[in-house]
Each structure stands twice: as structure tokens, then as C-alpha cells.
Amino acid sequence: MRVAGSLAPGVFLCACSGPQSALDPAGREASEVATLFWGMLAGAALIWLAVIGAAVFAGRVQKEPIGDRAGLRLILWAGAVIPTLVLAALLAYGLRLMPVLRAGEASLRVHVSGEQYWWRVTYERADGTRIESANELRLPAGRPAEIVLDSADVIHSFWIPALAGKLDMIPGRTNRLVLHPERIGTYRGVCAEFCGRSHAYMAFPVVVLPPQEFEAWLAREAAPAEVPATSTTDTGAFLANGCGGCHAVRGTAASGTIGPDLTHLASRLTLGAGMFANTSENRRRFVAEAETLKPGVRMPSFGALAPAELDAIAAYLGSLR
Amino acid sequence: MSESDAARRKREEAELRAVWDIPRGWRYLSNCNNQVVGLWYTGASFFFFLFAGVLALIMRAQLAVPDGTLVSAGTYNQLYTLHGTMMMFLFAVPIFEAVAILILPQMLAARDLPFPRLSAFGFWCFLIGGVFVGGSIFFDAAPDSGWFMYPPLATDTSQTGIGADIWLLGLSFIEVASIAAAVELIVGVLKCRPPGMRINLMPLYCWYVLIVGGMILFAFPPLIAGDILFEMQRLFDWPFFDPARGGDPVLWQHLFWIFGHPEVYIIFLPSIALLAMIVPTFARRPILGYGWIVLAAVGTGFLSFGLWAHHMFTIGLPSLSLGFFSAASEAVAIPTGVQIFVFVATLLAGRVIFSIPMLFATGALAIFVFGGLTGVMVALAPFDWQAHDSYFIVAHLHYTLIGGMFFPLVAGLYYFHPFITGRMLSERLGRWSFWLMFAGFNIAFLPMHITGLRGMPRRVFTYPADHGWDGLNLVSTLGAFTMAAGIGVLLWDVLRPGKPRAPRNPWNAGTLEWVAGDPSEPWGIRSVPPITSRYPLWDQRDLVRDIDEGRFFLPGAPEGRRETLVTGVLDAEPQQVLRVPGNSFKPLIAAVFIGGSFIATTFHWWTAAVISGVLGIAAIMVWLWTGTATIPETPEKDAGMGTRLPLYASGSASVGWWAMFITMVGDGTAFLSLIFAYFYYWTIHGAFPPEGSPTPDNGLLLAGGAAAVAGWGLTLLARRANGAGRPGLLRALIAGAALLALIGGGLLILAPWQAGLDSVAHVYPATVWVILIWTALHLAVGVLMQGYCLAGSLAGRLTREHDIDLRNVVLYGHFAALTVATTLAVLVLAPLAM
């Protein structure tokens, strides 16, 4: 199994890599499961060849039939005894893996709440302070992180294939998952349980950072928005059009909690929960056409605003670093 | 003086032809003969298969390229929901029942199964419900939250429109039809075998029908219970799945998958059963390991009820549950392996003729074994956490269903086509069809394993470029259209005119269905032979000739009535000549009205729903009154072979009693599912009833229960009075029983009403209401039956000897009394005990 586990990825690397691939692991659970998969695949291939080989041999090649007693022995051994032994061994291996994967203590806790169709992310430090964010997850490499999952509306499922298997976010329940990110890089997570119209547009980038960088980033994320006081980036248009009713920008009058926190929006990699690259053009487009771009989203389209107003809002959003 | 043998045969054939004649013109729709209904059923479910397949092709076209714009998110969600729903509920399960209804009578050498009108009723329900559910997509009103309809998304009426109601009510209606067909098939296998076909001589297909029928009986009711809770939430805002008011969305997942996982095996086993008929024929030897395969099939059936939570590995189950369900899910691979190796061993121990059915059977094996092996992978919780809800699962489930169900079904189509239609399908077209389908299938679904592990979730209407999914998806789409081409070839082969006539028993098979000669003769089998072998056509000399010459049971129909032979459950000793009802429009009319009631409820047309429902029940009453338990003109008749058999049987000797028993087992399972819901809520709440919640008055509940049980006692006394030949006392007692049942049911409803239990406020009152309404409704149905008996007694239909109806009502009474007792134990005793 180990041999297969180390050889096979080399052969299939081109077909299996990617920011969202369970076979290109960057965390402990994902690597264990990828190894398990390659081992099971090798075993499955052997079994498939043996069974289909026997059937094709019997149907097309064999000339003289075997005796009934030999046939019954085949049923007993190949049908019952060998599968029982193989499955028992596999089960023992799998069950041993189970507690190893999901348990563990962590100094960092992140609350992630699924909402149609975005992610409310709250970092909780060891001292209990909470830092609001959204639609992006940053984690320190080599340190376990406890992810606390729940949902505000319907069932979602939290899945970062490169780090670990998925766990559902169910209204009225809280689930816990411990991630062990190991490899520095940027990955992608998605909602895996169908959650409505824009289920396909519910994703988020996952950035695994060196621990010091992570701490520095978290300190920045905790701070209120620092908007350079220029005429093009004031909060006027943003607040005047009611954006602050749903969105919070810490340090300003905008304190809504219905939609994602936007305090450091411009520093995020994507827009609209993993939908678009976070460019100024996309920010403007999303404000203007949210309902068209993301069917079923709660945010109304602001396309009816005067172009200057839209420009002002987009510019303001772009300044929230 | 005695007529010549030739003249006798001619007379008998004319009698049979007249009695079993298939009506023409518009009266064709009044047909109540299982072989005709079976053909309709098969055709309709195959049509739904094609329909759902086209939906899949539209989806594949949408997914061929990233950011596809062929259909919108809303349309795509309807497409994928309807694809799964139709394939599962309108094709995979019904086609089993359809094929079984079609070939079982022949295989059992029975003129007909015992309840042909029930089959017709089931078919019409299926057709009406299927058209209603499938047709919704043309009105942009199809269900759109996935074929397992998870709340709270699917219970939210603002996000999911009428589609969810169409799903719930349309499918509940079809589930009733499925259970009706299961009752017909189980009783058929148990009571309509030819004399001498002891249970261990049955063709394997019959074993599988029995097992799968039993599974339907225990698997569908939990879903019906779930549907009731679900629809109560959608229609009246009862909070079963709303955590804010004490509900829990996970309960639906339990109820759905307690149904949903056995359903996979309900789909898979009947197709294995087809292979179990095909393999011995082409290996030219009896199946090797008959006992092994029967035990393995039974084992699969049992285990399949213990696996449901493996569909829920990602909801955050405790480790102990994960371990248990992982182990059970792995274990089911063992009996499946036994069944596969029974086939392999039979082939190895025979001299195989590699025909088109064998080609499809081998293809089925290749695909199914692969799906089984990925099934072993996903049965392990840690791997499932990655694979779940990704395209890996899409690939896995299609490998198991297409390999385990669709390819064997096509093998069965090529195999059985000759005796059903009298025509041979083309070998050349069969090969084309096979290779197009086999290659297309693998091109479409093999890459999906990788797509899924590279992170693509299922049920997305589009996907971004640059995640490594583009090429894989394009290949899958090409494969899907290749497979569709193969299905097109198959369709052409079946529909094309001018197919050559099939000789009798073209494959030289050993089982009784191949006795069928000219399918244009409507009688099924010319005379019912005594059986001494598992492969009578191989082992019993001159059997076909003697059958044709009418030397066995029921060679004619001198009284001009449709008759079939009823035998004992275990040893198949002849017991009764059963008069089967003939063609009638009543099942069709009943299905239209009952269906109308469900459809009207979907649109909240309450008055129409009530009127339609009442008319439907009335139609069923008229149908029962005119068609069942009729008193024969003579107590017994010559059944042939020097045997005189009674024409009337009641109690456990009658098929009606068995049907009632089986139906009530299913009904009881639905009730227990509601009780399960009650205790489920109890476990998540700690205190149940919750602190401060009003509870129904125990005195009223107990009084209601006492009245209901007293009514049951009077029903028992009524049967005794009838047995003693005292019709006056019978009528008085049965009227008293009905009155007590009404009082009991009324008190059971009064109790929560008087206590002011608000079913919208919290899940506790809602659950109490549901259980009490269920119980009271059962008492009301009992009253209807008691009234039917009373009318029967007054009309002279129910007499001392002819008491089928009364004995069936007594049997129903046992179950109703058990329901009442359980309700009281749960609502009164359980809270006291805590």
C-alpha cells in the first residue's frame, strides 16, 4: 500500500493536481485519505481483473466445464471467505484512521457559518477575542485549527478537499472539525451540499501561511478599516445607499450583520464567495448586478444608481485593505 | 358418447379464448389481465426512463464546458432533481414490478395473479402520478432541491415553489401503487404456484420477487411517514424540521435513507434475479449453489436495512455510529460477492453459449463489480468524507445502478422478448447497442471518479475553468451521448417492424415461462402442470405436449369465468380454484379520482380534493362490492386431474386475507416510523413533553382507547356470532363495534383539541397530533369496513360460510387495536415512566 501510495501519485500527478484536489493533499487528513485511496484502488483493480477474468474465461475460453464440487468451493472461498477477510482488514485500517483524523486540541478556533450563499468566518483567539471576516479562510501551517460549523438557513457542507473531508453545516446543530494544514499555499473550499439556486457559486479561497505571517495577518484583520481620507474613497455613497444596513465596516457607521463583513474586503483574494477575482471592475459589477450574477442572492442589484455613485461605492470598497 | 380428445381440446380452447379475451377499441383500457397490464407498466416505466435520460443529456450538454449557459441555475436544478426522481421512482422500482407482473404468471404457470384489478389500479396510479411529476417541468414547476429533498431548503415554501409539493404528493401517490403491486406479487408467489412447486423448487426469480416485495413493504412506509410530516410542514407550517420550534432537519434524512438505502437493493436484486434466470439457460445447466444464492439474497435484503446512515457520514455522527455503519456497509459486499460467484461458478461448471443476453450480462458484471468496489471504498467513513456529495459519488452510484440494474434489464429484454412478443430481437443490432452503451457509459462515468476527487461537488449547474475539470467533463458529455446512441439502437430494435417470428423456447431454457407458445392466445398457460423439478422443461418428459393437450389442472373454463389455481404457501398443494375478476373500468376510475385528490391538494384546492377523494373511495367500494368475494354457484368444482377443489376460501386460506395481512404490515411500519419520530424528538430534547407544554388529558385518551378496544372486542364477537349462524346478532354487534370505534376515534381527537395543543408552536404538539390523527383515521377506515360488512350481511353476500369480508375486517381490527394500544403506550405511559 505504501509503495502504491508513493508511486501512483507520480504517474497520475498531472491528472490529480489542482487547488481543490483531494489527491493533491496539503493537510494531514487529506494525505491519509489519499494514501488510503491509492491503496484501495490498487486492491480494487486486482479484484476486478480476477472476477471479470473468471467470467470472461468461463464464457469465451473454457472448453471443459469444472465439476460441481469445485464450483461450490469457488463460491465458498471467492464469494464468502476471501471477501470477509479482505473487508475485515480494510475496516480495521479505516476505523483506526477515524479518531486520528478528526480529534485533537487546537489553540486557534474558527467559527464558520454557512449562509445562502456565502461564509461568515469568525476567528477566535486563545484569549477569547473574536475577529469577524467572511468568504476566505486563512490558517497557519503546521498548527491544528478547530473549525466550528453551523448554518443560518439551510444545510451547507464545508469542504476543503486539499486539507480534509467535508462536514455538514446543519441549522440547529454545531459540528467541529480539526484541520491540520501542512503545506503552505492557496487552495479552494466549496459548499458540498446542495443549498439552493447559487449552490454552484458558494466557494472560498483557503490560504495556508507560515505561522508568523498568519499572526501578522490576523492582527491586521482584527484592526478596524483604515481608509485614506481622500475625496474618491469616502464612505458617503456607501452609507447613503444603505449598504451599511447589511454590511459592517468596522470603524465606520456601517454595522449591518445580515451580509458579509467588508472591513478588509480589498485584501481578500476573491469576490462573491469565490466567484470572481477581486478586481475593481468586478467589485463595481457585483454591486450593480448581484441578483443577475448570483441567482437567489439576498443582495439587491444597485444597477439603477447613477454611474458616479456606483464608481464611488466601488472605489470605497477597493480602499478597504 | 364421450367427446373425442380433439373435440374436447377444441371446446376447451374456445372456452378459454372467450373468457380471457383481450377487448379491443377503447375498452382495451378496461383490461385487468396481468400480462396486458404488465406490458403497459413496462412500456410506461421505459418511457419515463427515456424522458429522464433526455433530462440527463441536457445536463451533460450544459456541463460540457465551464461557465455553460445552455440552461439557467433554476432550470438545471429542476433537471437534476427530476432526473434522479424519475429514474428512481418512475423507472427503477416500477420496472421491477412491471416486469414481475409481466413474467411471473407464466413462470408460475398461473392463469393470472390473484388481484389483477389491483395491478390495473396500481398501473393507473403510477401513470397518473408519473405524468404529473414528470410533466411539471414543462410548466417550470418541477421539484428543484434534489431527489432526497433535504429540509429546511425543501420545506421553505418561499424558496421551493409548488415543485416540492408535486414531488411529495405525486410520489406518495405512486408509493401507494408500488405497495399495491408488492402485495400482488408477494401473494402471487406464495399462493399461485403450480401444484408441487414447493418453496425450494421455485425459480430463483420468484425468490427475489418475494424478498424484494418484502423489502418494499418495510422500506416504503418510512418514506410515506416522512412525506406526511414534510407535507404537514409545507401545507400547515407544522414544525417537524424547523430547529427554532423544536424540530430537526436530520430526522428527514433518517426517514428518507431508511427508505433510500433498501431502495438501492430493491432496484438491484430484481435485476440480479433476471441474471439468475439467464445464466443457467446459457450455461446449459441448473444454477450451482441454489441454497447459497437464496440465502445471500435474503442476507442482502436484511443487511440493506442497517446501512442507511452511510448516506449521512458527513452530518457529524458520533464515532461509534460511524464505525457501526461502516462495518455494516462493508458487510453487505459479502452476500453480494456470493451472488456474483454463484454466477461465475455456474458458468465455469457449464458449457456456455455466448448470446446477446450473455453479452449484456457480462457487461453488467464488469460495470457492477467496479461500482461495488468503489462502494467498498465509500463505505469507509474517512474516505467518504472526501467522496461524499462529489462527482465520485455520481460515478459510483451510476456504476452500481447501470451495472446492477440497467444492463441486466437489457439482458432480460433480449432474453424474454421472444416469449412476450413472439418475435426475436436482432443479434447484430444487439451487438451495436451493447458496445455503444458499454463504451459510452464508461467514457461518461469513469472520468467522473477523478473529477470528484479533484473537488467538483455534485449538483452544480456550472463550474469555473482552470480547476482541472474542463477536459474531464467534456469527455463525460461525449460518453453520455454515445451511450444515448446505444439506447437509440436498442429502441429501434424493439420498435422496428418485421422482426422474425421466434420459435417456442428459442434458448432451450428449463423454466415454465418458456411453455408459452403463441402470445396471441390470451390464456397464459393451456393447463396448469404439477411440478417436480426446478427446471421442469429439462427434467419432466413430455411436459409441454401434455400442457398443450390440456391434460393438467384447469384445462377449460366451462362456467365462463376467469380462474386461477391457489396452492399452499410452503408445499404448493392445490387448495382452491380462485375466480379472478375480469376486465373493468373501475380500477381506472378509482385511480383517476384518488389521483385527482392528491393533485388538487398540491394546488390547495381543498373542496375539489375532498370531493375527488370521496368519489375515489366510493369507486373502490363499488369495485370491491361488485368484483370480490362473490358467492360461487357451487361450493366446489372439478379442477382437472381428478381433483375437486373449493371455489371459495376465507380466513388464512384465502388470498384476500394474505393481502390484508401484508398491507397491514406495511401500514404498521409507517405507523412505527411516526413513533420513531416521537422518540427521536424525545432524545434530542431531553424532556418530552417539554417543560410547560400542555399535554392531552390522559383520562380522555384512555377513555378513547378503551372505546376503540371495546369496539375491537365486539368485532371478534360478531365473527363468532356469524360462525354460529346468527345474522341478527352479527348485525347488532358490528353496528355496536362501529359506534364504539367512532366514539373512540372522536375522544382521541378531542383530547389534544381540548388541551389546546398548538401544532404550529412546537414539535411536541405537532407529533402528538399526527399520531392521534393517524390512529383516529385507522378507526374511521375500520368503520367504513364494518359498514361494508353490515351491508353485505343485509344483502346476503356475507353469510355463515361466505365470510371473507368479515374475517379480513377482523384481521384489520387486530392491527387497528395494536395501533391504538401503541399510541396510548407512547403518549400516556412513556411520559409517566420517565
UniProtKB/TrEMBL annotation, chain A:
It comes from the Bacteria. It is found in: Membrane. InterPro entries: CcO_II, CcO_II-like_C, Copper_CuA, Cupredoxin, CuRO_CcO_Caa3_II, Cyt_c-like_dom, Cyt_c-like_dom_sf, Cyt_c_oxidase_su2. The keyword Signal applies. The chain crosses the membrane at residues 38-58, 70-95. Residues 231-321 form the Cytochrome c domain. Residues 105-220 form the Cytochrome oxidase subunit II copper A binding domain. Subunits I and II form the functional core of the enzyme complex. Electrons originating in cytochrome c are transferred via heme a and Cu(A) to the binuclear center formed by heme a3 and Cu(B). This is Cytochrome aa3 subunit 2. Its main location: membrane. It is a multi-pass membrane protein. Gene3D superfamilies: Cupredoxins - blue copper proteins (2.60.40.420). Belongs to the cytochrome c oxidase subunit 2 family. It catalyses: 4 Fe(II)-[cytochrome c] + O2 + 8 H(+)(in) = 4 Fe(III)-[cytochrome c] + 2 H2O + 4 H(+)(out).
Automatic annotation (TrEMBL), chain B:
InterPro entries: Cyt_c_oxase-like_su1_dom, Cyt_c_oxase-like_su1_sf, Cyt_C_Oxase_1, Cyt_c_Oxase_su1_BS, Cyt_c_oxidase_su1_bac, Cyt_c_oxidase_su3-like_sf, Cyt_c_oxidase_su3_a-hlx. Keywords: Cell membrane, Copper, Electron transport, Heme, Iron, Membrane, Metal-binding, Respiratory chain, Translocase, Transmembrane, Transmembrane helix, Transport. PROSITE patterns: COX1, COX1_CUB. Pathway: Energy metabolism; oxidative phosphorylation. Pfam families: COX1 (PF00115). It catalyses: 4 Fe(II)-[cytochrome c] + O2 + 8 H(+)(in) = 4 Fe(III)-[cytochrome c] + 2 H2O + 4 H(+)(out). It comes from the Bacteria. The chain crosses the membrane at residues 37-59, 79-103, 115-139, 166-190, 202-224, 264-283, 290-310, 322-347, 359-381, 393-417, 429-451, 471-495, 613-634, 655-680, 700-718, 730-754, 766-788, 809-833. It is found in: Cell membrane. The keyword Heme applies. Residues 14-545 form the Cytochrome oxidase subunit I profile domain. It is a multi-pass membrane protein. It is an enzyme of class 7 (translocase). SUPFAM superfamilies: Cytochrome c oxidase subunit I-like (SSF81442), Cytochrome c oxidase subunit III-like (SSF81452). Its EC number is 7.1.1.9. NCBIfam families: CtaD_CoxA. Belongs to the heme-copper respiratory oxidase family. This is cytochrome-c oxidase. It comes from Ancylobacter koreensis.
